[in-house]
Amino acid sequence: MTKIKWLDLILFGAVLVAVSSSGVGMADPHFSAMFVFGDSIIDPGNNNYLNSLAKANYVPYGVDFSEGPSGRFSNGKTIIDYLGDLLEIPALPAYTNPFATGKNILRGVNYASAAGGILEETGQNLGERFSLSDQVQNFEDNLNQLKSQMDDQELSIYLAKALVILIHGSNDYINNYLLPSIFSTGYVYSPKDYADILVKRYTRQILALRNLGLRKFFIGGIGPLGCIPNQLATGLTPPGKCVAFTNEVVRMFNTRLISLVDQLNSNYTGSIYAYGNTFGAFYDILNNSKEYGFSVIDRGCCGVGRNQGQITCLPFSVPCANRNQYIFWDAFHPTQAVNQILARRAYSGPTSDCYPVNVQQMAQM
Ligand SMILES: *[C@@H]1O[C@H](CO)[C@@H](O)[C@H](O)[C@H]1NC(C)=O
Ligand SMILES: *[C@@H]1O[C@H](CO)[C@@H](O)[C@H](O)[C@H]1NC(C)=O
User: Fold this and answer.
1) Does ligand 2 have an atom closer than 6 angstroms to the CB of 283?
2) Disulfide: which of 14, 54, 271, 344 matches 126 by Cβ 3.0-4.6 Å?
């Protein structure tokens, strides 16, 4: 009896596979492309071509990456690289890469720029960078090229089936609000008012992308910045504790982002918006580090001074050997081991990780 049942199931499965591969009545569960807007955590090397202090195109960055130092702020892959693997989308070109033209942009482009933020002035202490609005303009530039490669109807289907990833806001705190020696925002705005301003500006750009034809949006929240080696190195907090104020202010931003996602989903039918709970996922990794295989949670693998976080990873410094056991690669950025976990949770995690749907579910919508 059992055998027959199994056989039935196998035959039924074979029919399903045959139907889906012939495309009859089944939506193609793949994104056409991936367009990425963000900061250093996902910059694939855009800043290599800018006059910026925020660069990572030198050894030992990329020590575990097939191409060596590419400009990624990690020992290896970024969240976008891992998501691309899961979605079967080849590595995206950086917008500033001279080869990012013609057919090479058909599976998407990465516009993320280290030190860039939602506000125009964010990160100006580090030199040139692409702000969120610059990144949207760069996408429009690519869109003109895409228009020459397909007709109007093809283009609108292509854009509707593309995944947009936005990971912004960290620099609006680290390289703006929390740097009172350079920026006045910390004096002028209360944390609540500042979060309101950021989310208002963010909304404008998300809707601009929607107006251009994009329909599927993953919007990552800010992680627990109060726990990164750069913040721990301020010495504002006893060993083993994160900087509470920093975590509090970024949480205010995240709360507003969740509410924005709810509003966008109810106001704009025909498009979908998901919130990636980076804060919760990252905090879980910090809080349960041993279960994830991490033994060092409060120091950069490469860096100088207190918590290896006072000065970030300098050219030719010798990184730690056991990189898979470190949560942080440098003063600001996680190791690829953490990036992989974050990508998987965005891809297939429960609603506590990715709300109201995850990336895998978005692909099927
Ligand atoms: C969504 O619609 C509500 C009700 O009209 C409005 O108050 C809110 O500002 C809208 N939000 C967005 C992001 O469009
Ligand atoms: C950290 O973990 C402990 C026990 O696993 C739990 O009780 C606590 O709520 C967690 N803290 C946070 C902030 O997630």
Assistant:
1) yes
2) 54
**Could you tell me which of 326, 333, 267 has the C-alpha nearest to residue 298?**
326
Mean pLDDT of 84-101: 96
Question: What does DSSP assign to residue 175?
Answer: I
Could you tell me the distance, in angstroms and rounded to a whole number, from the CA of residue 287 to the centre of ligand 2? 6
* Residue 30: active-site member: no
330 is catalytic: yes
Atom of ligand 2 at shortest range from CA of 283 = 14
C-beta 289 within 6 A of ligand 2: no
Could you confirm whether 333 is annotated as catalytic? yes
Question: In the chain, where do the E strands start and end?
Answer: 34-38, 108-110, 163-167, 216-220, 272-276, 296-300, 303-304, 311-312, 326-328, 354-355
Which one-letter amino acid corresponds to residue 3? K
Mind listing the pLDDT tens digit for each residue in 269-319? 999 999 999 999 999 999 999 999 999 999 999 987 777 777 789 999 999
Q: Whose CA is nearest to atom 6 of ligand 2?
A: 287
- Residue range 31-363, CATH number: 3.40.50.1110
Q: Taking the complete model, does pTM exceed 0.85, yes or no? A: yes
Closest CA to 202 of 258, 143, 245, 285: 258
Q: How many CA atoms lie within 13 A of 194 on its CB side?
A: 24
Q: Model confidence over 94-148: pLDDT tens digits? A: 999 999 999 999 999 999 999 999 999 999 999 999 999 999 999 999 999 999 9
Q: N- to C-terminal Cα distance for the chain?
A: 38
> In terms of Cα–Cα distance, which of 85, 77, 257, 89 is closest to 163?
89
Crossing angle of helices 152-160 and 132-147, in 10° steps, is 140
How far does the centroid of ligand 1 lie from the alpha carbon of residue 274, in Å? 17
- Three-class DSSP category at 186: helix
> Distance of CA 349 to CAs 323, 345, 356, Å?
25, 4, 11
